[in-house]
Design brief:
The complex is a heterodimer of chains A (about 240) and B (about 40). Chain A is of the alpha/beta class and about 240 residues long. Helix content of chain A is about 40%, strand content about 20%. The termini of chain A are far apart. By secondary structure, chain B is an alpha+beta fold. The chains are: A alpha/beta (about 240), B alpha+beta (about 40). The interface between A and B is large, with 45 and 36 residues.
């Protein structure tokens, strides 16, 4: 029986790049491909697969009875899995920074404290720390107007050393903080670590006696990676 | 499966080959839904 697609099905379909691939004969590509991907019969109609952009199979629908509700569920489940995978992939492909800010604290040394950093330094936290001191923005905003050269250098550092594959991979073993050196308190925080000229990176090994290691704005990707690697426990 | 065929025919935005789909998927980040079809009258 022919039935019109439901609004839910139309919505689910909109989440896909849709391809209708017409049968091109017994010796054609369509049947050959379908048989290599689970079709057991000599005709390829009407079956469905979801694929990634490299045409690798993600999931398949080979139920020729076509129950609309089941087909919809298959589309929605695949879509959900796809989003989870895409989010994990995106996370794995960059340094995942947590923004860090100093807060006024008259009782603390320097008149400020940084709760998240203190917490990351606690004994039960066993990860080394990476702090990226930077100015936000690209070519606009107050920081770019006041310190344009440093703002540009921060973006270049993000794309360069912090965008290098080795550094990204190693960063997943670190707690990574990003400090926008725009407020007076954050400027004091940066100065405490020697980050007067931006960008700058500080690496800090785990352990109460460990000293922060300052890496200036001219640090190359390979040197940053080497310094990070030295703080990551060797794989067993 | 005829209802699925109807869906395909009703919607003009279906691409014609997996390779076309791959290009679009690379641009949009969406997965590809590939439906194999009989030729008209098949």
């Amino acid at each position: 029986m022919l039935s019109k697609p439901s609004a839910e099905l139309k919505k689910a379909l909109a989440g896909y790049v849709r391809v209708e691939w017409r049968y091109d004969g017994a010796g054609g590509r369509v049947l050959k491909w379908a048989k290599a991907h689970g079709n057991t019969r000599e005709d390829p109609a009407y079956l469905a697969w979801t694929l990634d952009s490299k045409l690798e199979e993600v999931s398949r629908w080979l139920d020729r009875r076509y129950i609309a509700a089941d087909f919809l569920k298959w589309l929605e489940d695949t879509s959900r899995d796809w989003e989870v995978r895409a989010a994990a992939k995106a996370k794995a492909s960059r340094v995942n920074f947590v923004d860090l800010s100093a807060a006024e604290d008259p009782k603390a040394e320097g008149g400020f404290s940084v709760e998240a950093l203190d917490k990351a330094r606690e004994p039960e936290e066993r990860r080394p720390i990476l702090i990226f001191f930077q100015l936000p923005g690209t070519g606009v905003g107050l920081a770019a107007k006041v310190r344009p050269e440093e703002t540009r250098a921060c973006r270049e550092f993000e794309k360069g050393p912090l965008g290098a594959a080795d550094v990204i991979k190693l960063s997943h073993e670190f707690t990574c903080f990003r400090v926008d050196v725009t407020s007076e308190l954050n400027q004091r925080l940066a100065a405490k670590f020697g980050a007067d000229k931006l960008p700058a990176v500080v690496l800090w090994a785990h352990g109460k006696d460990a000293k922060p290691q300052f890496l200036g704005r001219k640090t190359a990707a390979k040197d940053l990676a080497a310094a990070m690697k030295a703080l990551v426990p060797a794989e067993k | 499966m005829t209802a699925l065929l109807l869906l395909v025919l009703q919607d003009a935005e279906w691409l014609k080959t997996p390779e076309d789909g791959a290009k679009e998927a690379a641009k949009t980040g969406k997965p590809i839904l590939l439906v194999t079809m009989c030729a008209p009258g098949g």
